[in-house]
Design a protein that fits this description.
alpha/beta; TIM Barrel; eight-stranded parallel β-barrel; 8 strands; binds SN-glycerol-3-phosphate
């Protein structure tokens, strides 16, 4: 399973890249707003830093304008993946842009039927938002399992990119279900390493080691 980082903060991406944890990056208008940066400038910097796909989202609502924005965003770098919303216009833009050879991530997916439409429109990635489904008391991970089954039934090549990840369990469940990609906020990614038994175990080893009076270096 690939790990994308869900942020537009250059320093966070750089830190995680040093650990080999960045197979790609996803951004959206809210993350660009949080960064306080110009979308074209910050996206270019991210593309220069990361080899994998970098999702940059269109902000128009008509297919025609989404296509124009997508073409402009795609000029930033070869690893740009144009992100479009899961609307009829977004699907139209997806079809045109993928036919032109661009990578397209269809975002704001909340149902299996929406994911089916995105695959039919040739999406490179489908982004189901699991956290936002959990927020309204619908298990987001059930949707990932449904999409996995549907895509496997018909050998769709669209990759399932689990988004709106809020917990470490979302990551575990994505891996168990067989999602292709999980895009994780840096704070959640850092929590993946934590376990109280690891911390307690290390403390015990350090106390005993001190009693030996030895050094390795
Ligand atoms: O990848 C989509 C993500 O940024 C949305 O997350 O937590 O705002 O639902 P959230």
């Amino acid at each position: 399973m690939k790990f994308f980082v869900d942020t537009a903060e250059i320093s966070e991406i750089a830190e995680l890249k040093d650990l080999g944890l960045v197979d790609g990056v996803t951004t959206n208008p809210s993350l660009i707003m949080k960064s306080g940066r110009d979308i074209l400038e910050v996206t270019k910097e991210i593309c220069d830093l990361v080899d994998g796909p970098v999702s940059a989202e269109v902000v128009s609502l008509t297919a025609e304008d989404m296509i124009a924005e997508g073409r402009k965003l795609a000029k930033i770098a070869d690893n740009i993946c144009v992100k479009v919303p899961l609307t009829w216009d977004g699907l139209k833009a997806c079809k045109v842009l993928t036919d032109e050879g661009f990578k397209v991530n269809v975002t704001l997916c909340f149902s299996a039927n929406q994911a089916l439409l995105a695959a039919k429109a040739g999406a490179t990635f489908i982004s189901p938002f699991v956290g936002r489904l959990d927020d309204i008391n619908i298990d987001g991970m059930d949707l990932i399992a449904e999409i996995r089954q549907i895509y496997d039934n018909f050998a769709f090549e669209t990759e399932i990119l689990v988004a709106s990840v809020r917990t470490v369990n979302h990551v575990t469940q994505s891996a168990i279900i067989g999602a292709d990609v999980v895009t994780v906020p840096p704070a959640v990614l850092k929590k993946l390493v934590e376990h109280p038994l690891t911390a307690n175990g290390l403390e015990g080893f350090m106390k005993d080691w001190a009693k030996t009076g030895q050094n390795i270096l």
